[in-house]
Amino acid sequence: MAGRSIVHFFLGSVAIALGSYIYFTMQIDMSANGDYKNAASIYEFTVKDTHGNDISLEKYKGKVVLVVNIASKCGLTKNNYQKLTDLKEKYGERGLVILNFPCNQFGSQMPEADGEAMVCHLRDSKADIGEVFAKVDVNGDNAAPLYKYLKAKQTGTLGSGIKWNFTKFLVNKEGVPINRYAPTTDPMDIAKDIEKLL
Question: Which sequence ranges are marked TM in the entry (predicted)?
């Protein structure tokens, strides 16, 4: 009888310890994932560039920002690379910055690795499209916090999820997303909205 009491006591203690561990772990995870919900602007986020260096988006304070998830093997790639290059040439000196985030979530259409492989790909494609960051997920639990924030602030037509490569978010000089554009939106069609913010 005493043996059973000891076993029950032991199992009860293990259950309490395990339950406490799970509870506190979930609280930590929830608060870490919840940070993007409380952000006032993109300036509160730090991302990695294509070479793995931390970049605070506060660096772009006072600029108009276009955030784009890019891919190299997509049917939309050629037009978007050309038109993003055109936008950068036309508005870069007036204060537009284009932040490009390679993403392999849609049909595995961004196979290039970060770093030199990404730089070479863009150079070979004659795509002078702006700042290039490390490859990210834009949907799901592992989505970059910046993308969770952008999607929360500017939902799409059929929900907040990113539907495909080359979804674009326009951010004003205060770091607040003010518009979202579908993958099929030609970057030059965003020019009039950019001009209003410059």
Answer: 6-24
d(CA 113, CA 116): 8
Query: What phi, psi does 170 have (nearest 5°)?
Result: -100, 130
- From the candidates 74, 96, 99, 103, give the one annotated as an active-site residue: 74
At 140-157, the pLDDT tens digits run 999 999 999 999 999 988
Q: Is 120 a catalytic residue?
A: no
The string over 112-131, giving b where at least 16 C-beta atoms fall within 10 Å of a residue's C-beta and e elsewhere, is bebeeebeebbeeeebebbb
CB count within 10 Å of CB 145 equals 19
Q: What is the DSSP letter of 106?
A: T
- Of residues 41, 129, 35, the one with CA closest to residue 79: 129
Burial of 76 (0-12, 13-18, 19+ CB in 10 A): middle
pLDDT digits (tens, 9 = 90+) for 66-103: 999 999 999 999 999 999 999 999 999 999 999 999 99
Q: What is the DSSP string of 47-79?
A: EEBTTS-EEEGGGGTTSEEEEEEE-SSSTTHHH
Q: CB count, 10 Å around CB of 71?
A: 24
Q: Read off the DSSP letter of residue 112.
A: P
In one-letter notation, the amino acid at residue 124 is: D
Report whether 86 contacts 120 (CB < 8 A).
no
